[in-house]
Specification:
CATH superfamily: Fido-like domain
Number of strands: 3
Helix content: 40-55%
Shape: globular
Structural class: mainly alpha
Mean pLDDT: 94
Number of domains: 1
Order of helices and strands: EHHEEHHHHH
Number of helices: 7
Strand order of the largest sheet: 1-2-3
CATH architecture: Orthogonal Bundle
Low-confidence stretches: none
Strand content: under 5%
CATH topology: Fic-like fold
Largest sheet: 3 strands, antiparallel
């Protein structure tokens, strides 16, 4: 099976597969994805337990989510890519600009106190902010793999901090979610993602 991503570097995947090279030398796609799912489930428990009033949702925290979740499996866990990447018609941030673009996004997020002040504000305003930054990070796509899952974890922790449950995507079809994500990357339009998040936010 060919990689789902088009990348300039072929070092990430085992040749002619969508399986990333890994520390356990796993070559089976189903097995690697099941292990990724297990590691992510564990990460949710760990970061849930660590969440407190002093948690800062900055770039360091975001990178640490990826590194600590997947470092047992991948050497590149928590490491930003420096090569170009695309998926379908969507071209993500060019590799040479990933680090500087990330700094810009998280500087903007810092000015909004990392969205830590929305517990008593309207759900719609909160959903709009979550969608905007989710789209920005989605377009950045800073890691070799597992961007979507870590981005969800990141914003689930912000939602939890503000008194909500994890964002519920269960009523959204994969096609609807992908379409909203494509709108983010190709058209800088976060309206579709906003509606998905708004419907998924529950106290």
């Amino acid at each position: 099976m060919a990689s789902k991503y088009k990348v300039q570097s072929s070092e990430v995947y085992i040749k002619n597969t969508d399986v990333p090279k890994n520390k356990l030398n796993i070559t089976n796609s189903v097995q690697i994805h099941e292990l990724e799912k297990e590691l992510l489930t564990e990460a949710y428990e760990i970061f849930y337990d660590e969440l407190n009033e002093n948690t800062i949702f900055d770039e360091t925290y975001f990178i640490e989510l990826h590194r600590r979740t997947f470092e047992a499996l991948y050497d590149w866990a928590g490491v930003y890519r420096d090569y170009n990447m695309s998926k379908g018609e969507s071209l993500f941030c060019q590799g040479i600009y990933v680090k500087s673009s990330s700094k810009k996004i998280f500087k903007e997020l810092e000015k909004e106190n990392y969205l830590k002040d929305y517990e008593d504000k309207s759900k719609e305003d909160f959903a709009e902010k979550l969608a905007y930054y989710k789209c920005e990070i989605n377009a950045l796509h800073p890691f070799c793999e597992l961007n979507g899952r870590i981005t969800r974890l990141f914003f689930d922790m912000i939602a939890l901090f503000n008194g909500y449950k994890y964002i519920d995507y269960s009523t959204v079809t994969p096609t609807e979610y992908i379409d909203a994500a494509i709108e983010c990357v190709q058209f800088a339009d976060s309206d579709g993602m906003k509606m998905i998040i708004l419907n998924g936010l529950k106290k």
